[in-house]
Amino acid sequence: MAMWRWLSFSVLSVLAVLAYSDPALSFETVRFQASEKYNGRTVTLRGELFRPSGTGPFPAVILMHGCGGWQSSVHKALRTHARYLAQNGFVALNLDSFGPRRNSGGWVCRTSDRLSDARAYRQVDALDAVDFLRARDDVDPDNMFLMGQSNGGSVAVIMAHKNVRVLHGERAVRDGVPTFRAMAAYYPWCGTLTAAISKLELISPLYVFGGDRDDWTPPAGCASDTVRGAEYRYKIYPGAAHSFDLNIGLQRYLGHLVGYNRTATRDSRVRMVEFFRSHFTEELQLRAPLTVLQAQTILKAQGLDPGPLDGAWGRKTLAALNALREQHNLEPVDALDATSEELLKSLQ
Fold first, then answer.
1. Which CATH number fits the domain that encloses residue 257?
2. Domain limits for position 307
């Protein structure tokens, strides 16, 4: 009987791994109207909505692309970020600002005026996206976050600055509380704020990620320990170029070095999630689930193999979780459920 039970459990575990389907891998295409016209034309913004399993309400992250728009490699990278965030308990909205305005394909990248114009209307896009998300029952309206690449990262830097209340009034700051609880800016242009970043004063916490080989938006201007106001962090990765989270080989684009750096991509994602979680409201802090990285770390401490400690939910992590459940006479699962989370927390 014991052998039959073990065989049955093992078969079920294999089937669970084979049938593994992460809800964060799928998304819903959404559309909503921009609050401001563009060149006299009404704009309907579009996005891809990724969400965790469960009912929520969940914290939410708006993801904003760079000046190339949803070019293939950019689009894929943002989807990977969004899935990672959903796996770690966030609703993630991958927002397309340029397609609906017919500005895709790198058109914006080619002049400073177009880049500046985009930084302006995309601030409003971010706030429109907040309004869209806050109308959903599965989103926690008090826990909104922003992540952007390059031009989108520059938007995040601007939205973190104290002047945002002058630019956007109560849409950006109400009763002293900023709309965005924290921002993550991937290789932004820090000159969007001031030539002397030592004068920078933040109203929202900001984490900047850059690479020391970035010759498009060099990160040196972002590296400062004298920023005032809300929390400010920066991380500069040795050997990383611009667009280090795009899965493409090192190459020149419009004369600038761009390309993938695995270490920077994986580490920045882990840091981003930890940073956002550290700025949850107190109420959310009390009910926030484990991150995938926390689950992986606990599983590894129990002598199991969850795969790389990268914060990404995958087959090895699931297999390790089910091995732990077997040790505690629990049936296998195909996702991190409430029972599994209670078990993991008891082992911390």
1. 3.40.50.1820
2. 2-20+290-346
The DSSP-derived string for 73-98 is HHHHHHHHHHHHHHHTT-EEEEEESS
Average pLDDT of the chain is: 89
Residues of the chain with pLDDT under 70: 1-25, 192-199
- Which whole-number Å values give the CA distances from 137 to 51, 133, 177, in the listed order? 12, 9, 22
Q: In this structure, are 175 and 61 located in the same domain?
A: yes
How far is Cα 294 from Cα 34, in angstroms, rounded to an integer?
38
The answer to whether residue 285 is domain-embedded is no
Predicted TM-score (pTM) of this structure: 0.88
Give the residue from 237, 277, 273, 332 showing the smallest Cα distance to 9.
332
Distance CA 13, CA 111 (A): 55
The domain total for the chain is 2
DSSP states along 35-71: SS-BTTB--EEEEEEE--SS---EEEEEEE--TT-S-
Q: 34 and 104 in one domain? A: yes
Which pLDDT score, from 0 to 100, does residue 23 have? 55
